[in-house]
Amino acid sequence: MEYLLLFFSAVLGLIFGSFLNVLIYRLNEEGVPKFWQGRSFCPRCKHTLSWEDNIPLFSFLFLGGKCRHCHKKISIQYPIVELVSTSSTVALFVSLPHSNVTELLIVLCYWIIFLSLIVIFFSDLKYSLIPDEMVVTFILGSLGALLLTTPLSNVGFNLIVGLLSSLALLLIVIATLGRGMGLGDVKFAVPMGIFLGFPRILVAFWMAFVGGGIVALLLMILRRKGMKDAIPLGPFLVLGTVLAFLYSDFFWQILGVR
Hints:
mainly alpha; about 70% helix; globular
């Protein structure tokens, strides 16, 4: 039974990983159909893909990472997103209980959250944009998880944490005149706070800003970026969110806080 669950969750993760790639492209590119309109097509030559060219992960491998029609390279983003989606889906189904309807709904909420984070990560990394649709999806998944796992009073408290987190980033944007951070990051802070609560949101922000600062410094040392070049903060906020959710207690223990 467990092996069947592993297989089912892996297949589900692959299928939705392919869908996430569609979202990343169609939510950010101008002049392309919405994600629910029309079949998948090559971003380079716009040729509609047949079913054998649209099998998650396997088509990329079989085609040697190139489009069958224009022979241009397929972005490595596609298999990476599919693999991350698959590993996240398998990890959630394996690590969380799922013996009744409530537990399955909790798994579903966390699944929605982590899939939303994948889209936000790659959208901001590639386009320097955080789609509002994914922020709303993240909020809904977080509220669902909270309502199913905590008292109603905690939901209200986490809502306040989310609003205050967003306000804090907004003040930074105003103070820095929008350098290094945008309104997309401000919006994203709302579901971050709802999902993580206090004090885990502090861990997420600390990891995001420190991680972003280190990467920015390395890129400048390697002369890949200059002082005036912007580096998207969204991917670091996503990583900070995931790490704070998984390891915040360990982080506080290291600091000797508790």
